[in-house]
Design a protein that fits this description.
heterodimer, A: 290 residues, mainly alpha, 2 strands, B: 346 residues, two-stranded antiparallel ribbon
Chain lengths: 290, 346
Amino acid sequence: MDFWTLTNAVTTGLLTGLVYGLSALGLSVIFGVIRIVNFAHGEIMVVGMFFALVMFRWLGIDPLVSVPLAGGVLFLFGFALQKFIIARVAYLPDHMQFLLLAAIGIVIVSALLLVFGPDPQGAQISYAFDSYAIGELIVDKSRLYAAAAALVVGALLLGFFRYTLTGKSIRACADNLEGARVVGLNVEVLYALTFGIGAACLGAAGSILLLLTEAHPYLAPGYTLLAFIIVIVGGLGSMAGALVGGILIGVSEAVAAIVLEPSLKAAFSFGLLILVLLLRPQGLLGAPVR
Amino acid sequence: MRGLFVYPELSGRGHAALALLLVALLSVPLWATSYISTVLTIVFYLALVGQSWNLMLGFAGLLSIGHALFVGVGAYTAGYLYARFGLPPLIGVVPAVALAMVAGMVVGYLGFRFSIGGVYFALLTIAFAELVRILADHATFLGGTQGLFLPVSEGDRDGVNLITLRGHPNMFYYLAMGLAFLALLGSRHLLRSKLGFYWRAIRDDQEAAQALGINVFRYKMYAVMVSAGMAGIAGVFYAFYQNSLFPDSMFSIERSIEVTLGPIVGGAGTLFGPILGAFILTPMGEGITAIIDLLRSSGIIDPALRLNGLKLFIWGLMVVLIVLFKPTGLWPWLAAKLGLVARENR
């Protein structure tokens, strides 16, 4: 394996990893605040992909332009889901919440299957085969755009949580729920907002992902697992950790694909996950588990 | 959430109902169509796996969402030994269960030694299941993605051979029923043993259990091992019932979720929950398919309409409704309604 092959793989992995990271951010935000593991994660993201696909097919809208639209639509979906359904099971033990979200995931996948059928469908964007070349380093235009878009959305999100009052209130709920109630925050609405924001992240990530791959309903479970791996590697609840974990997994998968067999790359990620769980269960950037 | 886990004894009426049900089920192959006994065979199989899963969650408070791992390891071990060396499953079940327990020990050891709790432990189980799925995809000696096929010869379906597990579908029906019943009796026995009390002590308050001198690590390991072993037996049954094994169908997430659905719908942490859940979910799925087919053939639904997913859609919706409105599962509610259990005596 020569230098340029490796450089190409690392670059591809880095750019793809940023999109993975954005998706994982959606999972991390929800878990970090509401303490619920969103088992319908991949399913919601695939909804974002199909949304962008429909926009592209009907109105010829580029998936990148769909990013804020998909984000908005899925924000409403996530908000409603938390407010009307998930909030009702907050008192139940973990396994019931897991089952509820897994079942919601099943409903979403089968609905997509009913509407769109089981075949992979992609958006044939005009710049799909364009690329930039720097020496022997070849970067797909679509991949570069995708990574840039993921970075922008991720930065907006970090900014929201750092600088806006609502963002700070949500973080207050995550840090100390009782304290948040005491100072008069409306936790129920903030939770719904949080789930909405997490789902919006997935909508954005799904739209962006349509630049890189074709959409089909059965992608969902794989994306759910991928996001779990990333978030655990990076640290559940840590936003920066999700992005870093995304890049790490993206790069390691891309390198594993050329060093080992391509189909073994996922095994590599699971190996990494198990290693992190054992050596540093709070994740690379996570706070120690209390 | 102590109220979620209750183990009241059956009342007189409950015992009578159970006996009646057993007699009815024993006689099914005599009068029912082969379709019905096939569906029931799957129900028994799922009840068996569900009982095994319930042992971990309901008894010891350990959430496994990678249970397909243990089933698959058992199935592949016995299947491989039979296909490659002709080792009959009656003997092959021993290494199959042993390997499934080893898989459980690995997951358990890593999880408990490094005190990975709650959600993280659940994710560890699914990570292992996925890892093994991908490795099995690449294991050429197990057939890889092409699958592992168990040899079946002409006339196998006529006889009854419990040593090689070759015989009439009715043999599988009674075998599955027997295994599910044994799993019920075994779980009940475990629950009332010292082991069962230790498990529940750990489940309800791990720190208090530890303070009382219970070796938490050891008893959690026992829970995973017993559960994995039971799942391994179910796997052996599945291998010889299906005669073909594919990594994606044995180890996939969908399979692991399917295992958890029955017990949770029926009532996680109850003895009869996994059985009731299997009896509800499988026939419900079959019923939905039948209704769709009927509507199609009678022209109410356009037969050309693609309906992949409709069954899963309704099924998923039902599960959502059950979680929202009967979160303790259906068994405690049903049992109280019909007076099948004695008043709470734990």
